[in-house]
Amino acid sequence: MADSDLWLFGYGSLIWRPDFPYRQKQVATIDGWSRRFWQGSHDHRGLPEAPGRVVTLVPTPAATCGGVAFQIEAGHQREIFDQLDYREKNGYERLEVRCELADGNQVNCVTYIAGDTNEAFLGEAPLADIARQIQGAHGPSGSNLDYLLELAAALRELGIADTHVFALCDLVSRQ
Ligand code: SIN
After folding, report:
1. Rounded to two decimals, what is the model's pTM?
2. pLDDT level of residue 1 (50, 70, 90 thresholds)
3. 49, 79, 88, 124: which is the annotated catalytic residue?
4. Ligand 1 contact via 14 beta carbon (within 6 Å)
C-alpha cells in the first residue's frame, strides 16, 4: 500500500453507491459502533418539512459494525473528500476509526458520522415508528424506503448481518 493512500469506511449509502474512484475495496469491521437509522435526512431521502431517516454510527461498547473500506489514491483524495463533504453535509463529520479489513489487516479509516448534537439528529425511536417514517419519506435522492432496501440488499450480498436494519426491512414489508 502506498503511504499516501487513505482508507474510507462506508456503512450506509457509500456501500452501494460510492460514486468515486478507488484502488480496491474490502468488507471491513469497526469495533465499538453500531449502525442506526437515527439521523434525519432533509436533503436526500426526505424534505425539511418531512424528514426521512438515514444511518449514522452510534457508540456502542460491545458492538461491531460491518461495512466496506475503500482505498483511495493520494491523487484523488482532495476531489473525493470535497465531493463527499458536500454529499454528507447534513450533519455528518469526518472521524478517524480503526478498521479491520477482510484480509486481516488493520488500517485507520476516515468515516462520516452524524453525532447526537447535530441539528438533523433524530435519535432513538420505537422501530415501528422508524419504519413508518421511512415508508412515508421521499426526497431529491429518491424514496427513503429504497435507501433502506438498497442498504439491506447490499449488506446481505456482502454477508454482513445487522439486526437493526433487517428488523426494519421486516417491518416495512408488513406495514
Ligand atoms: C455512509 O454511507 O458511510 C454514510 C451514511 C450515508 O451516506 O448513508
Report:
1. 0.95
2. very low
3. 88
4. yes
